[in-house]
Design goal:
Helix content: 10-25%
Number of strands: 10
Radius of gyration: 22 Å
Number of domains: 2
Oligomer: single chain
Strand content: 35-45%
Largest sheet: 6 strands, mixed
Shape: globular
CATH topology of the largest domain: Immunoglobulin-like
Low-confidence stretches: 29-34
């Protein structure tokens, strides 16, 4: 076999391997997107006068609970995303009581909660001030 034929064959093989790898990444990404489920969120606005500067960002006090039996879920990764952003504004892990706390600027957001290999996403909420949220997954 001539050297040129070996190079052509190797290039073709590398090309097809590259295509297979890219297709594999695409299918993994697609599957990950399809696994996101809807979570129910209950929001309660809190009107606290924390004293101090008017420029303080709102505090979100939250809990993650099981939808079926209402038990707190500890160790859940809670991320909050501004509706026009792909990177989270804040991220926290729930404590033993399923509780988390974060500070974010006013705006419209949604939460993604990952726990035990499952990801859930809430509907959009508008944050204008301090609030309590319970996310049922």
């Amino acid at each position: 076999m001539r050297r040129a034929d070996k190079i052509k064959g190797g290039n073709a093989r590398n090309f097809f391997m590259s295509i297979m790898i890219i297709a594999g990444f695409y299918s993994c990404e697609k599957a990950e997107i399809e696994e996101v489920k809807k979570a129910r969120i209950v929001v309660e606005e809190v009107h606290n006068d924390r004293g101090g500067d008017d420029e303080e960002e709102p505090i979100i006090q939250g809990w993650v609970k099981d939808e079926d039996d209402q038990t707190p879920i500890s160790g859940a990764n809670v991320k909050i995303f501004h509706i026009n952003q792909s990177n989270p504004t804040a991220s926290r892990i729930t404590d033993i009581n399923g509780e988390f706390q974060m500070t974010v600027p006013t705006g419209t957001y949604y939460f993604k909660v990952t726990h035990a290999g499952s990801t859930t996403q809430t509907n959009n909420i508008t944050v204008n001030g301090d609030m309590n949220v319970t996310i049922y997954i």
